[in-house]
Amino acid sequence: SSRRCDHCCVPLCSASAKFNGILSFHAFPTHSDLRRQWLVNIRRDHFTITSHTRVCCRHFASDQLIEPTTLDGRRRLIKGAVPTLFEWNEIYFFSADCMFYVDALVFKQYPNATGKIQHQILLIRLFYTAFH
């Protein structure tokens, strides 16, 4: 099956299956209230959802994700799952296989740095904090 639609629609998130096979991408729920809550949470008020629109696993807390039980299985969401982890939060983290803490202060302190450099700065800060 084609993976061309596997990129995250959340603002400031550049996640794409093209460059990362670990991430999972989840379609919007069909239930209207839950779908509306997703839109509110991802801050996309006037947004057209298509069959290809996805939110990546990094925006869901680990207790909202069901890990695959087989090697070829897919990560799924629990019933009623809602994305809550975003770059505009003070701290958010990549869930599941990408437990990677991201401090929004990095983005404020180094606004011109690329995502890769921001993550490197963050890792240095986390390493320093963990051992000092």
Automatic annotation (TrEMBL):
- Pfam families in the record, alphabetically? THAP
Instruction: Return the InterPro entries for the record.
Output: THAP1/10, THAP_Znf, THAP_Znf_sf
Do you know which Gene3D superfamilies this protein is assigned to? THAP domain
Q: Which residues form a coiled coil?
A: none
Q: Which SMART domains match?
A: DM3 (SM00692), THAP (SM00980)
Superkingdom of the organism of origin: Eukaryota
Q: Where in the cell is it found?
A: Nucleus, Nucleoplasm
A biological-process GO annotation:
endothelial cell proliferation
One GO cellular component term, please give it: nucleoplasm
Which is an annotated GO molecular function term of this record? RNA polymerase II cis-regulatory region sequence-specific DNA binding
- Domain (THAP-type): residue spans on this chain: 4-86
Q: Which UniProt keywords apply?
A: Cell cycle, Coiled coil, DNA-binding, Metal-binding, Nucleus, Transcription, Transcription regulation, Zinc, Zinc-finger
Q: Which family does it belong to?
A: Belongs to the THAP1 family.
Instruction: Supply the name of the protein.
Output: THAP domain-containing protein 1
> What species is this protein from?
Maylandia zebra (zebra mbuna)
